[in-house]
Amino acid sequence: MITIAIGLSILLLLVVLFLLFRIGTLASIFRGSSQRPAGTSRTSNKVNSTLFLLFLIFGGAAFIWSFADSWDTMNLPIASVHGEWTDNLFWTTMVVIGVVFVITQVLLFFYSFKYQHQDNKKAYYYPHNNKLEIVWTMIPAVVMALLVFGGWKTWTKITSAAPEDAEVIELMGKQFNWMVRYPGADGQLGVTKHTLIDATNEFGVDFNDKNALDDIINPLEIHVPKGKPVLLKIRSRDVIHSVFMPHFRLKMDAVPGMPTKFWFVPTKTTYEMQNETGNPDFKYELACTEVCGRGHFAMRYVVVVDEQEDYEKWLASQTAFAVQNPEVVAKFQSTTPSQLTAENKVVKEEVKSEL
Questions:
Q1: Are the C-beta atoms of residues 79 and 305 closer than 8 Å to each other?
Q2: Is the peptide bond before 176 cis (omega within 30 degrees of 0)?
Q3: Which domains does the chain have, with CATH numbers?
Q4: 337 vs 148: CA distance, rounded Å
Q5: What is the pTM of this model?
Q6: What residues contact 293, with CB distance under 8 A and at least 6 apart?
Q7: Helices (H) and strands (E) in the chain, counts
Q8: Distance (Å, rounded) from C-alpha 150 to C-alpha 307?
Q9: What is the pLDDT of residues 207-236, one digit of tens each?
């Protein structure tokens, strides 16, 4: 490969030098300091037009070969319902613009060859045609409108409200790792406040809220059930991060001060994907696709898709943060302002009793 690259570089250098020489010659002719040799125009145009045609043929063949050779690596298997919608929209758009691109490039290079300059040939003067301009304006406009409408419909389905029975997971990005929180048996995430964030309470969970007591924080892996909606509640603690799960065709920015969300339905368990890819070590992953600083590369979390029964077993095996870290909760409560409403006082007593 290095030898080929060096050879191509030398060839391109020779072409550039030849073109510079030609430019100098033509500039001299224009200034009247020299005359064009007889037949020069015909010879150089024939050479250039032939090179255009060869570039079209060999460049097109190289593109087709590289596209076919990279097909398996650039097409990740789909593992979500809406991922199929996204891929269908993408490939429809690629086919439309690809056909137009091929037609225009073939005509461009073929015309350069067929209608090359000749000293005894005069170009036909054709300045204007209203009907032709209407046709080539309306066709792209209609095609683009259809593509935009299809994209809008797909985006509307993807960003619609999640079903009520969706599993809820909160993701928070910070420099430089992801933090994950699951609701416990009550199915409700506890209240969080950015003012409560410290070294021991990185989520800023308000432990005066009963719903926070059984929250599961930062499990070793993210588990989601196959065939059931999963709602990701996304936020950031510092700079812009970006939630990216490529096999689910899932991407949503995590923006400081502006919570975002994304819901999807996984369609293949991790085990099924291992069989499909032939890779027993395959793992889904959550990565950050926003260059968020020096440690950006470390923002990765393993995602596991389970059958519903396995997912429920895994969830039941997880221990709530408040149970694992009672001293953090106790410390939080002892330093919380004492002027609470009557309702909050009751909640606080219940929290203490449950701990």
A1: yes
A2: yes
A3: 20-118+128-158 (no CATH), 167-354 (2.60.40.420)
A4: 53
A5: 0.73
A6: 175, 176, 239
A7: 10, 10
A8: 33
A9: 888 888 889 999 999 999 999 999 999 999
